[in-house]
Amino acid sequence: MNECAFAFGIGCILIVAQLSGDRIAAADSSPQSGPRWIDIGSEKVVIARDSMSADGRNALAWTVDSSEPVDWSLLEKDPNHFYEQYDVKEIWIVNIPDKKKVGSVADQGGYVRPGSHRTLSIAWGPIENGRRFALAAYEWKWGTDTLLLLDVGADDSRSTQIGPVLDKAIEAQIKRAKPRERGPFDSTYLLTGLPELGKRTGFSDPTTVGLPFVTKDRKQDAPVTEGILRLKLTRAGESPAAKFVKLTPGPLPDDPFSESARLAKADRELNAIYSALLKRLDTSAREKLRTEQRAWLEQRDRQADEAVRNKSDAENRRIVRDRVLRQLTEERSAELRKTLEPDR
């Protein structure tokens, strides 16, 4: 993990989004619960998609950078067009019930259509004594670049980088369980869909969180371990802090009826086939397969994005996306399996 991969201001809150260059990409056109914008003082701010906490108290919002009058009716009629037409002036963390700005994000950029593979994700914790913790991750296709612990109150917010500590805990576990693995390793911390209150994953209480992760060998581009990190969160001094409590290795818990669980299972099966195939190939063939796999991943994501854009209003965007990703992943597994087991 690169500690300096992204510069965040105090108390920044991150959303599930996609980046194109230095711009935050809009999500799809799925219906948004709650207000699309609110007035804070003399400023009207847009509530960023997928950034609202479950209780509706906190969210990320952005002010519009425009010298011309803003067509706010467009945000209701055609949100995608609004996001494409207007750029961001500032990105704020807001207290929605009190219509108050409690912090801001240092990076700025307009919302555009999805176009790359970098994402910003957030998982909110429950409120205790007027404050709440949240985890935010800046990710790209091969792992998590930056993992932040956020401490958000009614009037302020603070943040600290906790990724390097967790990376070291995972690498220590790999060294004990798989001493032949040398790395370097890339870990992905799975915040998307993490429950605010959960038993094994998510926040089990306001200061305890189970964080699922998957770690790969960077050179081999192959999975090494996965599991759940349990963290105890505290407010110490000027910044929040996370204490590593326990690492539980093993398959991540699945809901057999959810598309996301089926996708996770398909990804694991593909990774196993891909890893086994790499071991059988010579250096030239391995590099060729890695190039093909990266191209396939990009094409898979483009097809999923297209399916989301073309979905009906009655369909859930995440279910649609996960379904397409799963189907394409299963097809890729079948294709690689024929190469791995030609006589099967």
Can you walk through the features of this model?
The protein is an alpha+beta fold and 344 residues long. The chain folds into 2 domains: 233 residues, no CATH class; 82 residues, Substrate Binding Domain Of Dnak, Chain:A, Domain 2, CATH 1.20.1270.180. 29% of the residues lie in helices and 33% in strands. A 6-stranded antiparallel sheet has the order 2-1-8-9-10-11, with no helix packed on it. It has a 5-stranded antiparallel sheet with strand order 3-4-5-6-7. Strands 12, 13, 14, 15 and 16 form a 5-stranded antiparallel sheet that branches. A hairpin with a 4-residue loop joins strand 10 and strand 11.
What does the secondary structure layout of this molecule look like, with pairings?
Blueprint: E1 17-20, E2 23-25, E3 37-40, E4 43-47, E5 58-65, H1 73-77, H2 79-85, E6 87-95, E7 100-105, E8 118-124, E9 132-140, E10 143-152, E11 157-161, H3 163-177, E12 185-189, E13 202-205, E14 208-217, E15 222-236, E16 239-249, H4 259-280, H5 283-309, H6 317-340
Antiparallel strand pairs: 1-2, 1-8, 3-4, 4-5, 5-6, 6-7, 8-9, 9-10, 10-11, 12-14, 13-14, 14-15, 15-16
Number of separate strands: 16
Radius of gyration, rounded? 21 Å
Distance between the termini: 40 Å
Percent of sequence in beta strands: 25-35%
Secondary-structure element order, N to C: EEEEEHHEEEEEEHEEEEEHHH
Number of helices: 6
The computed structural class is alpha+beta
Low-confidence stretches: 1-31, 107-118
Oligomeric state of the chains present here: single chain
Q: Strand count, sense and closure of the main sheet?
A: 6 strands, antiparallel
Overall mean pLDDT stands at 78
Query: What overall form do the CA principal axes indicate?
Result: globular
Helix content: 25-40%
Our count of domains comes out at 2
Neighbour order of strands in the largest sheet? 2-1-8-9-10-11
